[in-house]
Every structure is written in C-alpha cells, then in structure tokens.
Design brief:
This protein has about 450 residues and is mainly beta. The strands form seven sheets. The protein has a 15-stranded mixed sheet that branches. The structure holds 2-acetamido-2-deoxy-beta-D-glucopyranose (6 copies).
Length: about 450
Amino acid sequence: MKLFPMSSSRFYLFHFCFLLITSTSLSKSNFQPKTLFLLVKKDPSSLQYITKIHQRTPLVPLKLAIHIGGESLWVDCENGYKSSTYNPARCNSRQCSLARSTSCGNCYGNNTTRPGCNNNACYNVVTSPNSYTDGEIADDVLSIQSINGSIPGPIATVPNFIFSCAASNLTQNLGKNVKGMVGFGQQSPVSFATQLASNFKFSRQFAICLSSSTKRNGVIFIGHSPYFISLAYDASRDLIYTPIITQPRYFTITYPHYVRINRASPEYYIQVSSVRINGKNLRLNKTLLTLDENEEGGTRISTAIPYTELEASIYDVVSKSFVSEMPKEVKKVPAVQPFKTCFNSTYIGMSRLGYNAPEINLVFQKANVYWTIIGANSLIKVSNDVICLAFVERKKVSGQAIVIGGYQMQDNLVEFDLARSRIGFSNSLFFHQTMCSNHNYA
Ligand SMILES: *[C@@H]1O[C@H](CO)[C@@H](O)[C@H](O)[C@H]1NC(C)=O
Ligand SMILES: *[C@@H]1O[C@H](CO)[C@@H](O)[C@H](O)[C@H]1NC(C)=O
Ligand SMILES: *[C@@H]1O[C@H](CO)[C@@H](O)[C@H](O)[C@H]1NC(C)=O
Ligand SMILES: *[C@@H]1O[C@H](CO)[C@@H](O)[C@H](O)[C@H]1NC(C)=O
Ligand SMILES: *[C@@H]1O[C@H](CO)[C@@H](O)[C@H](O)[C@H]1NC(C)=O
Ligand SMILES: *[C@@H]1O[C@H](CO)[C@@H](O)[C@H](O)[C@H]1NC(C)=O
C-alpha cells in the first residue's frame, strides 16, 4: 500500500505537466469544443439524476448517476466490461497520483486479470450514496457531445479519460440499469468537468439544469457559457453568486486496506448566513450554519439526495414559520413519509410559479444576495389532495446543517465556476417563462 500525501501547489504543478503531455496526444484531432453537454433525467424509483455517457472501444452507452460532490467517474467493472482500450493505472504512475490513489498492488485472490482486477495497479476510494469500496484506477476512451450556442455540435472524444472501476454492488439503489456515478467534485484533478476542461482547454466550469419531470430531460453544460435553456434564453446571464468554500478532509477507511485520507474535500460548500420566509428572518443557530474544521455544520449542495435536508432544530424553525405564513385556509394534515409538514391542497392557489407558497430566501454573504425558493420547489404533491413541504429532517446526528437537494434545484440553473471559485443560482426559470426541459437538444 502506498499513500500519496502531497501539498496542493505541488499537485497543480504536476497536473500542469500532465496537461502538456496529454495535449500533444490529442493534437491529431484538432476539434476544440468550448462547451459540451449531457442530458439528464430523474429516475422515478431512486430519484437520482441519471445521464448517459459513451465509453470504451467500441463505444458503449452507460447510464450514470450525477454526483456533484463526487471525486471522479466510477463504473461497475464486474459485469461485462469489454474494451480494447482499457488501461489499468500502473503503480506510481501519473494516473495514480492524479486520481489520488490510496493503495497499490495485485488483484487479490486470483491470478486472472480483467478490467478492475489487475496486477501492479493502483486503487482509490469509490463512494456511492450509501456505500464505499476501493476501485482500480484506469483510463479508457470517453466521448461526449459538444454544443455551440444553442446548436448541438460534433462528438468530442477523450482518448484517456481517468476513472475508477468498482464492484457492481455499489450500484445498488442508483436506479434501473445504472452502472455508476459521474463525479463533478471540486479540488479533484479527475472530476468530470476538470478532466474535460484540461483536455479541451476550456475554463473549469459547468452548470446543471435539472428537470422536474421523470419523462423529459434536463441538461448539464460543461465549459463556457452561454447556457441556452430555450432557443432565445441564455440562463447564465443573471446569476446570483456565492463563493465556494473549500475544506480539508480527514477520514479513515478500514476496508479492505487501512487508509487515512487527508486532502481537500470534493464537496461543494457554501455559506448560508440566514433564511427568510416571506421576508422574515428566522432565528437559527449561527454555529450550526457555519462549516467547521471537522466538516460539520454549514451548507452543502448535493444532487445525490432528492430533497433538501435540514438539521432538526433548523427544520423545526423553518417548518413552523412556513406553516404560519401559509394562507389560513390551507390546513395542515397528517405527515406523509419522508415529509413531516403536509397540507390539504384543496384551497391552495396556483400560478405559473407553482403553488402559492410563502417565499423562502437562502441568504448568502450579504442580506441582498439570496436565492429564492418558490412554491414549485418548496411544495410537493404526494396525493390528490395532499401537498408537503419538500424539505426533510436530517436523520444523522452529524453532518451539514443544510444539504441542498435535487428538488429545490429543479428548473433553476446552478453554475459551478471552479476557475473563479463561486456558484451561481439563476432563481426559478419559471420567472422567465421557461424550464430545464424546454431545450431541443435530445
Ligand atoms: C460556433 O459557431 C460559430 C458561428 O455559428 C462559429 O463561427 C464558431 O467557429 C463555432 N465554434 C466552435 C467551437 O465550433
Ligand atoms: C477468479 O477468476 C475466475 C475466472 O477466471 C472467476 O470465475 C472468479 O470469480 C474470480 N474470482 C475472484 C475472487 O475474482
Ligand atoms: C497464482 O500464481 C502463482 C504463481 O504463478 C501460483 O503459485 C498460485 O498458486 C496461483 N494462485 C491461484 C489462486 O491460482
Ligand atoms: C461488495 O462486494 C465486495 C466484493 O466484491 C464485498 O467485499 C463487499 O462487502 C460488498 N459490499 C456491500 C456493501 O455489499
Ligand atoms: C448551536 O449549535 C451548537 C452546535 O450544535 C451547539 O453546541 C449550541 O449549543 C447551539 N446553541 C444554541 C443556543 O442552541
Ligand atoms: C381536504 O379538504 C377537502 C375539502 O374540505 C376535504 O373534502 C378532504 O377530505 C380533505 N383532505 C384531507 C386529506 O384532509
């Protein structure tokens, strides 16, 4: 087992050299897209946001779950991974250090090699929403469609895209035929957008636009804006920005090797300073709202959880305020799992912004910098005459005070600008008479 403790400055110098090498191998194809895109659709059973990526030789379409705070791309290599261009990362190679390998050696227990199980190969930690393991680091061909303005363009190919090869049981609970996850995390040279930006020399940024429908695709743009949601609307034009907070991470994994990881977390943390409902400031515990050095408290953004999670005391204050700001004729009804605050929807009004709900503001670095959550993102219909506050109480005793989940980001454009270390929120696209599935990119 080998560990690769490295200071981040050395790390980026190393990364830079790697870029020079890969760019020469790419020069045979001189197509340099500025923006790439993926279509993404919510799986009705797992509520994960699923995209399709083409990988291997010959190319195979793979369904992968989006993991905004994930370190890298990983796929199930146990079930029928066939490719003439699969390269396991050899011990001490560049790929191992870029992918922050945590161990190195032979595939234990067997003398037969296959993708995911080679000798003299390195491993890193692969995580899914409720499990983790270690996976062989490898590279293979990956292709993805480009876009120019609002016009889909040629397919772009990365010959040596670095990923991890995991055991198939890690795909449990991701959805039907979902073969892995694609991580867009920060501070990781092998995260999806970062590798593509390095290969095609565009800026390190991407934007997600999740559809509220399980039938119609939303879109993820990777690379330069504009981000055209509909033919005439570039959703990158008016965003509300807040800085990305980086955080060192220390954690220990004992299976199958003892590993202590000490590096910047790939998760996206931001500072929510206060919460307002219908303009009224809620009394929340400020300590909880601040991320501490143990990765506790604060606010994180996650597409891997369907509904925003709030620490219990915060949930309580938000729920009470929301109930008291609801129109009087909208009565509370018994809870419907996983929600705790539900209403009879018979007398609630509707507009183009969804249900007429109290407006929720997540206030960032200043009182006048805030993201607005409207009825379409704060209430969910659970049956014919019942709607619920689409926030859930955090079950774990520790973790972030607020984890912004998929439902609240639907039909908003959320831009992750790594080059400038900031995240931009568009507010609901319903204000602009459009939505994330309005594009014509299918
Ligand atoms: C995008 O389209 C414009 C005109 O439609 C063209 O001039 C430009 O070269 C294209 N950019 C790329 C990266 O293909
Ligand atoms: C070892 O290889 C054989 C076939 O070559 C395979 O059937 C078996 O599952 C492998 N065992 C492990 C532990 O990977
Ligand atoms: C693996 O190969 C080594 C050396 O060739 C041999 O000694 C060992 O028995 C083999 N193990 C298995 C499980 O086949
Ligand atoms: C997944 O499979 C590996 C063997 O491939 C096993 O060791 C591990 O315990 C399994 N993990 C879970 C969560 O089932
Ligand atoms: C605020 O939260 C912190 C961290 O959980 C806790 O130690 C503290 O007692 C809380 N303060 C109040 C006033 O509840
Ligand atoms: C909702 O209100 C309507 C009209 O008062 C009533 O008929 C219905 O039973 C109520 N539903 C629930 C779940 O309380």
